[in-house]
Amino acid sequence: MTEKIEIRNEKGQLQKGSNLNPTGMDRKRALMLRKLEGLTPRALSALAALVEDKNNPTVRLGAAREILDRTMGKAKQSVTVDVTSSGALHLAALEELAQRARQTIDITPNVERDTESPIEKD
């Protein structure tokens, strides 16, 4: 891991170009990784022992997969996707709404209708 480099001025402020966290990792993760670094050789030897286990083929296969996944990378998976576009339906609905908005509304008073039910005033 890289050490943090601090360059401060006489007021104690960080100078331009200083980086308090050059790894970009949060403190908890960095601490965890430091603790795990000592376990890596033992973990590898335990995994290697599991690969050699002739009594349990399932464990052997799992250990072999772990090693291969970490050294060779996981196998790529192919995915077939069928996409149905609803863009045409959406466009048709928008055009219908625009057409409705362009229609003129007749607000001419209807004398016959308005005289049939006069509004009573108090």
Principal-axis shape: elongated
Rg result: 37 Å
Strand count, sense and barrel status of the largest sheet are:
none
Number of DSSP strands?
0
The mean pLDDT is 80
**Which class best fits the helix and strand makeup?**
mainly alpha
First-last Cα distance: 88 Å
Note the quaternary state here. single chain
Can you count the helices?
5
Q: How much of the residues is beta strand, in percent?
A: under 5%
| H-E order | HHHHH
- Helix content range of the residues, please? 40-55%
Low-pLDDT stretches: none
Walk me through the structure.
The protein is 50% helix and 0% strand. The longest helix has 16 residues, at 57-72. The protein has 122 residues and is mainly α. The mean pLDDT is 80. The protein has a domain at 40-74.
How do the helices and strands line up, and which of them pair or pack?
Blueprint: H1 27-37, H2 40-51, H3 57-72, H4 87-102, H5 111-116
Helix pairs in contact: 2-3
Short description:
With 122 residues, the protein is mostly helical. The protein has helices at 27-37, 40-51, 57-72, 87-102, 111-116. It has a domain at 40-74.
